[in-house]
Structure formats: structure tokens, C-alpha cells
User: What shape does this take?
Amino acid sequence: MQFRNDIQGIRALAFFLVFIFHINYTWLQGGFIGVDVFFVISGYLMTSIIIDQKDKNIFSFYDFYWKRLKRIFPAYLFLIIAATLAGSFIYLARDIWTLQKSAGASIVFLSNLLFSRGDSYFGAALNENPFLHTWSLAIEMQFYLLLPLLLIWVKRKYLSTVIVLLIIVLTTYTSISMFIDNSNTSTYFSLVSRIPEFLIGSFYSLAFKNKINFSRSGNTIFVFLNLLVLILSAVFISKDSFFPGVIALIPTIATANLLVTGNNFISDFFAKKIPVYLGELSYSLYLWHWPIISFIRYYHDEYFLSPGEVVFTCILTFISAWFSYRFIENFFRKKNNTTLIRYSISGGVLLICMAFLVPKATAVYQIPEAYTSPTFGLLSHNEKNIEVFGDKTSKNNRILLIGDSHALSIKPYLDYIGKRNDFSFSTVTTDGVLALKGVKREDYTSNEVKFYDAAQQLVDFTQQNIQKNRIIMINSSSFIEPMSAYESLEKLAGSLRPDQKLIVFNTFPSINRDPVKVNRDYIKRTSASFKIIGKEKNKLALEKFAATYKNVYLYDLSKGEIFKSIPFYKDTLMYYNASHLNTYGAVSLGKEQEKDFMSFFSPILAEK
Assistant: This one.
């Protein structure tokens, strides 16, 4: 197949769409379609190459796969090694496993499956993961395994028809799946949902081998209109759209039209020196831009980069990409397969050694886990298991604590007070979503659905323990969002026996940033300011709730001197992230509120 400079220019455009979106999604909310542009180009080029070799009877599966590996893997492996090493020093100890797991999934081109599970509840978010962008390369390599089988084994006269049918069936399946499951995340990272985008490129390669041709001016107008559609897609499609699926056909078909239109002004522009050079760098630019952005976000716990950080990202991305292109990509293109095998084995061994040695080498920088992660009461968190805390010898033991991770956070608080005031309590808690009947799945976002599903597995177990106890305590980050959570709380209150009491907590305040990342120590080092995120609406709703239902009581955890220096207390870290008390913070809050809480709790405890 003849090399086309204009395709390199289109690659450059695709990268800049993605780059702008990754820098700040509010600048170009649909810039992620640049990845879909890459997919169409890959489908178009690979199909053209395979069919050309098939027609000449020179196609070899062995050669095809090795050429793809030589093109993609050397720079890719170098990036994974460099990002893993850098991340070992930037990431907190609590998140190192996330880093290593992501690197491991990436190196075998399975990271799309890992990231389809969504964000970790407590750990680093996906937009802080330096390997998040490898999902697209994983899908591309997976598709490369399938494409030759389709093109070689299906007879030529049926091939276009089969490809069109696959596009229709898989696009329909993707769209229906997103609608039924109310989840974009798993679909977004799915090979099945992305195959139609590659196949659009494949179909255009077969159907328009002689290109679309009007006059030069007609070609220019046609290409301009398709380029406009592509740009408008980047402007108006957003992360909240049901994408991919049917909507993905708009930018992908527009891209395919750019590839097969004959002589025109816009293709001439894309074929000029600067766009072509940036297109040649586009793979390395794509590899390096995201880890730089994600590490900055992780370190400062801020999504939005400052102007200085944007400039720094642009410069470092270009330098890293130039180095990778000049000394890694070009070097291995000229080497034989044996050199690639040796390099790959050496890199794999190095990664394994780093997985064991780097965490030990960086141990001096690690903060004690009790300050950076939930460590208390985990055996009864997300598990069908009950733990008992407080004074375990007390007869005041028919007390149950339930709720989400905010209930998990106050287990040390109640344990401290219980041990000193003659009561014990059992507990079962969940991440993110209350394990109560009536909470609705459709009220949660695609990233929250997995927490809903996990909580639902504990609903019956929680209900059984509610029936066994006389006093039920419940804490949650919010009882009013979503509304079905509040409705489930009302149902719980309405189902209480005459001898049962329900205590709802107005939870402790949250802050706008993760203090562990910002401070990098458990002793106060930073001068950064933190904004308190109040929960007044939640408190007002709970006050009304407690006044409405008999045997329901409200206690406010957010009051007290301890929160005046949030997120520190006596210059010691009391939060393990932006919204959860650590064990030190919970016990410190217990010490401050002990008398006040017991004056509230003792009459309830004494009632029969």
C-alpha cells in the first residue's frame, strides 16, 4: 500500500483532540473521539495492507503480528517501565498495588478489562492512573488478533456484507446494553463496542478502493463538511452521552470519508510538513502525555491544571515523545525479531524486579497506614460477617451499626466510647451505597453501579441483623442523594418494632482535597488551605426525619472544636482522604464528644 502523508496529518488532529480533552475536559468535552479516529484509521490501513497482500498471495499471519508488535510494543514497554518507576515515588503506599496491577494489565494488553470495573472506592481515581490511556492500545491489539482471521477466511464476495452486518449488530448490541445496564463505563472499555469503529475503516477500505471523487472543489467541500462534523462531534458529544454505540457512527463515518476522498485542499494541508511530522510523533505523544497529566493530578489532588502546569505538560510531552520516537520507535523498526524478544524479556524481568524492590526502596517515604487508609472494622465491611466492638463484656450489646463507608469511619469512635461506657455494638457496613431495601439501581451513575450491586448482596444479611438488635445506628455520607436512599430510611423507620430505636448520624464534614496527597506526611507539613464541604441539607432532612418518626433520634457528628483545624488535629492528620476520618481522627472525635454523646445515648440505652 502506498504511504499517505495526509493520514499522518489526520493522526495529528486525532491526538490533539484527545490531548485537549485530557488537559481539561471543559475545553473540549468530546475530545475523546480522537481515539475513535485512531480506530478508524487502524481499521482502514490494516485492511488495505492485508487485502493487498492477500491479493498478491504473500500474506503471512506470522509477519503481520510481528510487524504490529515491532511498531507498538518497544515504545509501549519503555513507557510502562518509566511510568511504573516514577509512580513508585509519586504514589502513596496505599495506591502502589493499583499502580502495579495497572502496569501488569497494560503490558499484556488487557488494561481495558481492568479499567472497565470503574474507580476504586478508596484508592486513586481513574483520572489519576498513569496507565488509563493504554485501554485503547489494548483494544487495538485485541482487534489485530481478529481482523486477519475475518479478512482471510471470509470469501471476498461476502466480505463487505459481513462487515456491514457486524457493524449493525454490534452497534445495536452496544446501544441496548448501555440503555439496559445504565452503565457506560464497562461498555466504553469493551472490545465488542469498539469493533464497529475499526470495521467502518475496513469497509471503506474495501468499498472505496478507488476513492470518492467529484471535482477538486467538490472534494474539498465534501471533506470540509465531514471535518466540520468531526469537530462538532468533539464539541457536543460528552462523557455523559451514550457513547460508543449509535452516536459513535457520526465521528467515525466522518473520519472514514476523510480517508477515501480524492484530490482536495484539506488533504493537501494534512500532508504538509508540520502536520505529517506531528502525525509521525502521534503515537509517542499519545503514550507520554497522559502519565504526565495524571501524575500532576494525583500529586496535587486537583483535576484542573494551573497555566504553568499546562505549559510544563506540553513541553515535557513533546520532549518525551521526541526521545521515544527517535531512539525507541525508529530503532526497533530496523531490528530483527530476536532483538525485540530480548528487549521484551529484559523489560519484563525489570518490571517484575521493580514490583518487589521499588516499594521497599521507597518505604522511607511511606506514611503509616492507619493515617492513610481504613484499617479498623474491615472484616465486617462489604462482607457477610459481623464484628463486635466496644465493651464486649457488657450486657448492653443489642446494638447494631450499619451504613456506608462513613459508618466504617466511626467504628473506632464508637469503639472508644463503648469501652469506657459499658456498651458494645455489632456492625456490618458497605461502600458507597446503603444495604437497605428500596434503594434503586437507576439512581446511581455508571461508576457507582458496582457499589450498588455489592451492597445489594448484603441487604438480606443486614435486615436479619436489624431484627436481632434493639438499637440500630446508621451513618451515611448522604441520606438525601439519591432520594431512594432517604425513602429506604423511611421504610426502615416505619418497620421498627415498639422496642426498637433508630439513631441516625449527621456525619462528619468532608473537604475539597485529599490531605494525604497534599501533605505527604501524617504530621502537618503543608500550608495549603482546605475548604470544608458542609452537609446542611442532609442535617435538615435528618432533623425533620427524627421529628416525624417515633423512636428515631438524631446525633450530629459534625460539631466540635476538633473540626476547626480540619483536616488536622493537633497538627496530626485526621482524614485519610477528602471525605473520611482515619482511625486517629475517629478516636480523637470520640474523646472530644464522649460526654456529649453519652448524655444523648444513655437515656436511649436505658429505655426498655
